Amino acid sequence: MIASYKIGLAILLGGFLLVQGFLTGPEPAPKMQLSAYGFFQGPLADLKPAREVFPYEVNAPLFSDYAEKARFIYLPEGARLRYHPDGPFDFPDGAVIIKNFYYWKDVRQPEMGRKILETRLLLKENGAWKALEYLWNDSQTEAVLEVAGASFSHQWVDARGGGREITYIAPNLNQCKGCHSYDGAFVPIGVTARQLNRIEQGENQLLRWQREGRLQLPDGFAPEQAPRLADYRLAETELNAAARGYLDGNCAHCHNPHGPASTSGMFLEYNQTEPERIGIGKPPVAAGRGSGSRKYGIVPGKPQESILLFRMESDDPGIRMPELGRQLPHAEGIALIKNWIKNMR
Amino acid sequence: MLTLFLAKSKLNMQRLILSVYLICLSNALIAQSELEKLFQTQLIMAEDGSSVQFPEGKFYLSNTLWLDGKKNITLRGAGQGKTILSFINQKQGAEGIKVTNAQNIVIEQLTVEDAKGDLIKTQQVKGLVLRDVTAQWTGKPKPSNGSYALYPVQCSQVRIERCTAIGASDAGIYVGQSDSVWVTDCVAKWNVAGIEIENTTNAWVWKNKAFDNTGGILVFDLPDLPKKRGGHVKVYDNLVTRNNFRNFAPPGNIVGKVPPGTGVMILATNDVEVYNNKIWENKTASTAIVSYFIAETPIKDKDYNPYPSQIYIHDNLYSMGKRMPTWKSKLGFIFWWKFGKRVPHILYDGIQNPAWVDTDGELKQGYEICIQNNENGTFANIRADKLGLFKGKISKDRKPYDCKL
């Protein structure tokens, strides 16, 4: 009986994929295996980019349970990105944003190697974005398409030498849109001027891409005048800038007037200037027990009375923020925001 | 396997497969995680215009079941109490079922239980029917229950009918920042708020039963929200009784301030008509008309209007019995202090926008509060504006409010 169910299930799932394949028409059908795209040359797990693929780094990364991320962009030959000062850059059809999630086996000793768990793709097709999710095998030779998400146990050794274990949750395709949403349309998040305007290997990332013919910048573009989030990971970053960078990178993809958390009236973009919009003196709307018996989003000087911090510290699925993509509290982020609220007047 | 499917993909083959799978289901041999995956896959792959059938049985899910960006989809169970989706072991996602950015969605004939956050949340859905759905937190009502059982927000053309909502630590049926809403033939019990209409326009709430909640039916306009103004709300033919349950909302939330024993409460909303309801045995405030100031929370939203206006309370049947109002909330304490066992049925906080009052001290046309023809409808204005909450005389003069709208 178990066997027959599994056959039934496989047929049913296969049928869904097939029907989907037929109906998508001119769109290229999703490839079942990551290797089939040819984004990487040599052994897949080396993530060595092929010619039209190039890496990118962001200023204020989203915390994802201590997973590391290797980020790449694929552009069809001859195609270029177009700069945008506020939202994501304009991508040509056929472009793909590639994000690989991995853990070092031992964070203190990267030379011991890593384990890649998943690769998420955002594909621009016919003017619209869509997401695909690939899960890596244990032998790290291939990653296979998965639409309904998955969860599995993963262990690693953290920066302090402690053994950590989580039930790693790879999102289903709808959950992708839980964050990647602007007025209900599917959009990328991190490929904005404020995230990408940074020095990488001695050169501004945006200027390099322009030099390499991958990005079209406006005439007279000056990086120092363009939007830029502070890198909250660097000790020398000024406290307010670090905190606003952290909140932008970790919260503002939902908490903005066009995002999924627009219902809350709490908006955490780096350039939001209204104090109550970022939560100062703002009572909760629909937080329920997420309020933790606290009265306001942020109470200046009082992190322990601020709902924002309560939700960052929680690991309860009904309380924690962000809702998706985080199970573990982010100790470093919590310390930063605590310090920021404490020093706020 | 795919080629096999391709070769024989006729309808009867599909039926065969489906029945094989259903037989397996009934034998409960399938790992729950595989089933969860199947359910979620069905929601992701559902073609516009199709329906997804949940079989009979109790299913334990670890993650939100999420439908996004679809049109004309029906999610149907085998009946309330027959198809039970339990989220008691939920690991991720705050909601049980979530529907976003969709049109014409029907969810019917199933039970959803024990999600960590909300049970059914729908956001940005135009055309929504929730019908014959039970959404509940099992066990005794407690603060660790999720916020909302049925939670349409930023939706339009919403119809909630023959649903039951139990145990929400905020509101059982909560419609927020929406437009064109019907709530009818529903039951709400053991929630903090039974039914709450918030910053929502054109809502009709009728023929529902709200009992054993902290507050039965609430119509609120709150500050700091993208959708600023609610209003044009009708509440009629409902049974609102025994809403005396202790307030178990986590503090910090506005409903945490609703006194146990509240029947119908209108807060800072414009154009609300409450009529033909049976409002019985609510021990503190059968019907309260209040401003946001009663919440004693500072207002920072410059565009927000904290005053109720164009409120018409008529032809309701009131009875209270002789119970002391609660003293476990500030508002309740005031009533207890001032009225003892003889709390009037209809209470008005009397806090008025000075710009809305004419030289005689009465509310100008367009801002009236009218109270007429209620059976046992005793009235008091507690005049919280001039006198502070505890001082001075309340006014039982109903003449300024004897009008029609």
Question: What does this entry show, briefly?
Answer:
In chain A, 21% of the residues lie in helices and 22% in strands. Chain A is an alpha+beta fold and 345 residues long. Chain B is mainly beta.
Strand count, sense and closure of the main sheet of chain B? 28 strands, parallel
What percentage of amino acids of chain A are in beta strands?
15-25%
- Rg of chain B computed from alpha carbons, rounded to a whole number of angstroms: 23 Å
User: What is Rg of chain A?
Assistant: 21 Å
How many DSSP E strands of chain A?
16
Helix share of residues of chain A? Answer: 10-25%
**Number of helical stretches of at least 4 residues of chain B:** 5
Helical content of chain B, roughly? 10-25%
Pair with the biggest interface:
A-B, 65 and 74 residues
Shape of chain B: elongated
Low-confidence stretches of chain B: 1-20, 22-29
Beta-strand segment tally of chain B: 28
The secondary-structure element order of chain A is: HEEEEEEEEEEEHEEHEEHEHHH
- The class by helix and strand makeup of chain A works out as alpha+beta
Structural class of chain B: mainly beta
Strand content of chain B: 35-45%
Number of domain units of chain A: 3
